[in-house]
């Protein structure tokens, strides 16, 4: 299984927001990851819609986590942000041409494997991914000042 770039950078945006002292901005996150602001704005919309981040308006506004990092489970992030978990044709109800769909155990096996994937990822929170918060903050701060990544 492979997650999309959208989901990958959604997690990275969350990591950035958790490691940042104060509010983050799309511009600084884009600069840090060397990505376009337009791409990150689409991801930000998904993160807001799913309740992982919130924005603060105004001249000194920005982005912050909507809840503590200890309450943001990585499996939940992937499950809510990723658009497609159809591991096989039979995951699409009513759209399969497979004659075995009602008697084959593949769908059940893949469903259980997918659930196991999420269960294991939900053993980790955003806080776990950023447990070296000071080191991440220093890396972000130094790269922002020097323009290096």
Account of the 3D structure:
- The chain is elongated.
- The protein is built from seven helices and two strands, in the order αααββαααα.
- Strands 1-2 form a two-stranded antiparallel ribbon.
- With 149 residues, the chain is mainly alpha-helical.
- Helix 1 crosses helix 3, helix 1 packs across helix 4 and helix 2 crosses helix 3.
Helical residue percent?
Answer: 40-55%
- Count of DSSP helices? 7
Note poorly predicted spans. Answer: none
First-last Cα distance: 28 Å
Q: Report strand %.
A: 5-15%
N-to-C SSE series?
Answer: HHHEEHHHH
Strand order of the largest sheet: 1-2
Q: What gyration radius follows from the Cα positions, in whole Å?
A: 18 Å
Mean pLDDT: 85
Compute the number of strand runs: 2
Question: Summarize this, please?
Answer:
The chain has 7 helices and 2 strands, in the order αααββαααα. With 149 residues, it is mainly α.
Keywords:
149 residues, mainly alpha, two-stranded antiparallel sheet, 2 strands
Topology overview:
Layout (H helix, E strand, L loop, with lengths): L4 H15 L6 H8 L3 H13 L3 E4 L5 E4 L8 H8 L24 H16 L4 H4 L3 H14 L3
Antiparallel strand pairs: 1-2
Helix pairs in contact: 1-3, 1-4, 2-3, 4-5
